[in-house]
Amino acid sequence: MTSTVPFVSNGAATNGNASKQLPTTISEAIRARLIESGVSFLANDNIAEHLQPGDLVQLEREVADKVRDLLRTLVIDIDNDHNTHETAERVARMYLHEVFKGRYHRQPKVASFPNVKQLDEIYTVGPITVRSACSHHLVPIMGNCWIGIKPGSRVIGLSKFTRVADWVFSRPHIQEEAVMILADEIEKLCEPQGLGIIVKAQHYCMKWRGVKEPQTSMVNSVVRGDFRHDPSLKQEFFELVRQQEALLSS
C-alpha cells in the first residue's frame, strides 16, 4: 500500500516511516532524490548539483516520450506527418539544453579577481539580451538587461555578466523573480559594494495570446548595497543606462 505524499510549496515532501514506491522513471528518481535532500525544485530553481552522470540522457528520452504523447493527444498524426515526425526529440533537446538549461546545467565557470586597484567608480554593462519563458504559459519572454556595479573586493570580466544572465534567465520565470535571482548570483560572484539591474522585456503571454497587446512591455529593477542607500548613485546608474540606450538608438 502506497502512502499519499502531502504537497509542500518549496518542492519538498516527507512521508514519515510509510512505505515508498520505487521510482519507475528517471524523472521520478530525480524527484525522489531532491525530496530526500529537502531541495526545492520549483520552475526557476537550478537542480544541476543533484543530477548524476547519465541522468540528462535518460531524462531527454523521457521528455521526448511525453511530448510525443502530448502531440498525439492534440490529435496530430506524428506517424505520417513529416513536419512533426521528430518534433518530440527536438523539443526535449530544446528544453533541457537550451531554453531551460539554467535548471539542468551548472553555472558557467566564472573567474573572479582581487580588486587590486581598489576601483570604486560605478560602471554599467548592457544591453544584454535575455531570453526566458513565462512560468504560466511556457511562452517566450524576450528583452534586455543592464547591470550596474560599484566594485567591491573582487571583479569579474564583462562577458561573464552575459553568461550568468543567460544561465539565470534560461528557466521558466516570472520577470520579478528572475531579476532577484540574477542579483543574488552576481553578489555571490563579485561581492560588489553596490549593484543595480534593470530588465525591459516583452512577454508573449500578452503578445501572442490573451489580451494580444503587441507593444506592451514590462520594466523592473533591483538595487542593492550603496545603490540602494545612496540616491545619487542610484540616479547615476539609471542615467548611465539612459545614455547607453540613447547611443544605441542614435
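Above is the first protein from milestone M3; the second protein from the same milestone is given next.
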Amino acid sequence: MADQKRVGPLKSSGDAHPEWTLMYRRGLSRKKIAELARVKVSAVASHLAAAKAADPGLKAEHRAAVDDAARNAAPGIKRLYQLLAMVEATGRYPSRSAEDKVERELAQWLRRRRRDADAGILNPVIGAGLSVLPDWRRKPREAREDEQWQDHLQQLAAYRAAGQPWPRTAPGVTGPEKELGGWLRSQRYKFRHGDLSPARSDALDAALPGWLTSRKAAAEPYDGQSPTASRPRRTMSGSGS
C-alpha cells in the first residue's frame, strides 16, 4: 500500500463535537466557543479535555493560532484604541460624513469590522476589544432610526402629560399635533399588521397607556388594562420603526 501523507489530525469517531475542536484549534477560547454553541463553558471544557488527550498536539496548535491572531491584529490595535477613546469621550460612534479626517477613517474601519463580524472572519483579538462597546455591530442607520423613534415617544408622552388629547391628523391640524398624530397612527398601523416589535409595543404601553385606541374610544373610562394585553403577540422578523 502506498504511503499517505498526513495533513492533520484525523477526526475521531468518538468526537461528539468536532466543530468545537476545530474552533479551538483555530484559536477560539472555551468561553467564545460556548457563546457560539450556546452551551455552558463547562461542557466545552470537558469536551476539549478529552480532545487534547486524544490529540496531544491540539493545545500547541491552539496557542499558535492565538499568537498568529495577535500578530495579525497588531495593525488594527491602534485604530481600536482610537475608537474606544472617541466613544468614551463623545458618547457616539464615528461618522463617515464627519469633517475630521481621522473620524472618517475610524468610521470606515469600524464599518469593515462590522462586515468581518457578519462574515465570521473578524480577528478574535479585535473582536474582544470591540465587545466592550454597546451595540457596536449595529448599523448607523438602525441606531439613528431607533433614536428618532425614542424621541417621538418622549415627545408624545410629554404632550399627553400636559393634558392634551390624543393628537389628530385631520385636515387643518398643523404643528406638533399633526406630526405626533402621524407618528402615532403609524405605530397603530404597524401593530395591527404585525410589523411593530414587541419591545416597541411594550415601550408604548409603558409610556402611553391606551395608545392603541382611537380618539373617540380614548374618551371612555380607562379600565387600567393595556389595549395590547388581550391581543396575541405575533412573531417579529424585524424591529419595526
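Note on the second protein: Residues 161 and 210 are 13 Å apart (CA to CA).
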